[in-house]
Design brief:
- The protein is of the alpha+beta class.
- It has two domains: 9-98 and 214-329, no CATH class; 107-207, no CATH class.
- The chain has helices at residues 17-26, 67-71, 82-87, 101-127, 137-147, 153-168, 170-174, 183-187, 191-210, 241-245, 247-257, 263-274, 297-305, 310-314, 323-329; strands at 9-14, 31-36, 50-59, 76-81, 91-92, 94-96, 215-217, 232-235, 287-292, 319-322.
- The strands form three sheets. It has a four-stranded mixed beta sheet. The chain has a four-stranded antiparallel beta sheet with strand order 2-3-8-5.
- The protein is elongated.
- It starts with 8 loop residues before the first strand and ends with a helix.
Length: 330
């Protein structure tokens, strides 16, 4: 009889029973994982090759093959159907050999992506050409009447900056709020055309850069760890190009101050948890396994009996396993 190399279940391993209960209650909330992309770039060791990426990680290793993986401080798990994962946009990680032609092709494509970045900056700079001095007195009076305040040079500069942030999606990222949203639209008749060009360039750049989020090296540089054996799947919420690129500064600040004292990192966490759409939901019918420690099994059953999972549990629609059962029997 042949041995299955992959499971029809996607397992998410974690470190505590409290986390299991939270996932069963709220779903999966992405956490920021520090990913090292030095294998993709020639500038090895440069800070820009490290990024905090929001994700939820799974693997499709059969339980009998996952003992070593579980052993790494992760004695708890939730298993969900692979069909559920595919419907919700999960994807296997693509493992890349460090000396492959794929790496060379990627570097060429990335060079084109950086050219797009230069184009975007040029377009954005066009939006900033307009100056307060270009307004005549009647225009200032008309705008002041419309916005019910005296329009000053400071307002013009703020309106320009706000417009650029709106176009590039940075308002959501950084939490800006402003009251003169339409002012620059009133000032620069070309801006509609420029906004459309910037938006088109950003869409190309965004989709290109998101591909990186599902890449991982086949092994570490010393070849002592083979990541390929983990058979990882990922869920990554929809993130903007700005969110990904600003991680360079976040990494630097976290290294200097630590996660808890990094204002930039805490902003990222707040942004991620602000949007319910970033939470990965599942229903009782998607559940296949729950793995807990022996001492938590009875509490888990009590929890299930007072939850939306009660009927499926009573009908044996999913399986409860303990850590010791896996280590001793499978």
């Amino acid at each position: 009889m042949s041995t299955k190399l992959s499971s029809d279940t996607l397992f998410h391993y974690t470190t505590s029973f409290d986390i299991i209960k939270k996932i069963l209650t709220e779903g999966f909330k992405p956490n920021y994982s520090l990913e090292n992309f030095e294998f993709l770039f020639e500038e090895v060791g440069n800070i820009k090759n490290h990024h905090f990426i929001p994700m939820v990680c799974f693997c499709d290793l059969p339980i009998s093959s996952a003992k070593e993986y579980i052993f790494k401080d992760r004695k708890y798990a939730i298993g969900l159907s692979k069909e559920w994962g595919e419907v919700n946009g999960l994807n296997p990680v693509m493992y890349i050999s460090r000396n492959s032609k794929v790496i060379k092709n990627f570097r060429y494509a990335y060079s084109k992506y950086t050219e797009l970045d230069i184009e975007i900056e040029k377009e954005k700079n066009q939006l900033l050409d307009f100056k307060y001095e270009d307004l005549n007195k009647s225009s200032i009076a008309e705008l002041s009447k419309k916005y019910k305040k005296v329009i000053t040079e400071k307002d013009i500069e703020e309106a320009k900056s706000n417009l650029v942030r709106q176009i590039c999606g940075e308002d959501l990222l950084l939490g800006y709020s402003h009251s003169l949203n339409d002012l620059y639209d009133d000032l620069f008749y070309k801006n509609d055309m420029i906004k459309k060009r910037i938006y088109k360039l950003l869409m190309i750049a965004n989709n290109a850069i998101k591909f990186i989020l599902f890449l991982k090296p086949y092994s570490n540089k010393a070849k002592t760890i083979k990541y390929y054996d983990e058979k990882e799947w990922r869920y990554v919420p929809d993130v903007s190009k700005q969110l990904i690129e600003c991680q360079n500064e976040v990494v630097k600040e976290v290294e200097e101050k630590g996660k808890n004292n990094s204002k930039l990192f805490q902003q990222q966490v707040g942004w991620m948890h602000r949007f319910a759409s970033n939470t990965l939901k599942f229903s009782p019918s998607d559940l296949r396994y729950i793995i807990v420690s022996d001492e938590d099994k009875n509490e888990l059953i009590e929890f299930l009996m007072s939850s939306k999972y009660k009927d499926d549990y009573l009908l044996n629609k999913f399986i409860i396993l303990t850590y010791s059962q896996i280590m001793e029997d499978l």
